[in-house]
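Human: You know discrete backbone vocabularies at least as well as I do. Show me how you would write down a chain together with its backbone fold. No explanation is needed for now; the record alone will do.

Assistant:
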Amino acid sequence: MSGGTRIRRATARDARRLTRIVRSSRAYEGPYAPMIAGYRIGPDYVEAHEVFVAVEEAGSPTGAGTSERVLGFYALLLTEAELDLMFVADDAQGRGIGRLLAAHLTDRAREAGLTGVRVVAHPPSEGFYLTVGARRTGTVHARPPAVMFDRPEMILPVA
């Protein structure tokens, strides 16, 4: 991939980094904060689901080699044909990482024989999903106390 960014299957060792990306997301400040309060992605979740990460090689500050920096990730539930999670680290936004993940998601879904993927989006993310080809199909209504706001429901065609 260009710019040293690539997508790979997540491993259990990535779970803490994925949790950190979710919990630090500025998109979930204010009225959306309760939705991710205490949220955790465990190693068991990563091993049980189709979770992929966008990473870039990062040089070691000591010059002793390189390490990977996770820029974002998604989780695809194949049996439900649904996107469960997609996040891009705040400081990596605007670099095309979300589009890269969305393209990988559609390729993976197509490989799995899906014709579309359901997306229940965080309201501020609706525009992003529309720009990568999703179509609005409805609204998932709030379910207090877990979810305090309505969310757009979409389908992302992959065939």
